[in-house]
Amino acid sequence: MSILRFLGIRETAREGETAGAAETDTVRKIVARLEEIEPEKARYLAAFAYILSRAARADLKISEDETRAMERIVMEEGRMPEDQAIIVVQMAKTQNKLFGGTENFLVTREFNKIASREQKIALLHCLFAVSASDMSISTIEDNEISQIARELGLDHHEFISVRTSYRDHLAVLKKPESNKRGDS
């Protein structure tokens, strides 16, 4: 089905044929780019990106800043070109939005099986970096990252050690802004 038809925009037969061919080429290009990734690396990156989106979506929305941070992190951690990283992040965000409630623990458990302790701690840093991308880590995000750390079998002191690096962004530790009249 054409995206135009899905959106309720009618097409003529000729437009539909042209659009269908273009869509098919686009889909083929995307699939070809993703197939270039080794299966084990793809599995690792898929779980990694999904867990990033899990933390970003803890407050039920993923901001543009969080999306850009996830793309940058996936690109760096996965040593992949930007176009692949964008696709991986978008797929992870979509899957999290659709299946987050049921898949969060399962994906994190899978990552726990395939990642080393160092990779889990690196992920923890990345989770805080994504959550801090808007300069504030909400209590909900902090709690979600804590839950992920527990699911990954990380010790509480490991969680606190990483969390301390981001203490300036923790909303719970920020002073409340004074009101406009100057009252304290």
Compact description:
With 184 residues, the chain is an all-alpha fold.
Report on this model:
By secondary structure, this protein is an all-alpha fold. The protein has a single domain, classed as TerB-like. Helices cover 70% and strands 0% of the residues. The chain has helices at 3-6, 13-35, 39-56, 64-77, 82-114, 117-131, 139-151, 156-164. α3 packs antiparallel against α4 and α6 runs antiparallel to α7 (139-151). The radius of gyration is 20 Å and the shape is globular. Mean pLDDT is 83; it is low at 1-17.
List the helices and strands and how they pair.
Layout: H1 3-6, H2 13-35, H3 39-56, H4 64-77, H5 82-114, H6 117-131, H7 139-151, H8 156-164
The number of domains is 1
Low-confidence stretches: 1-17
CATH overall fold name = TerB-like
Helix vs. strand class? mainly alpha
**How many H/I helical runs?**
8
List keywords for this structure.
single chain, 184 residues, mainly alpha, TerB-like, 70% helix, disordered N terminus
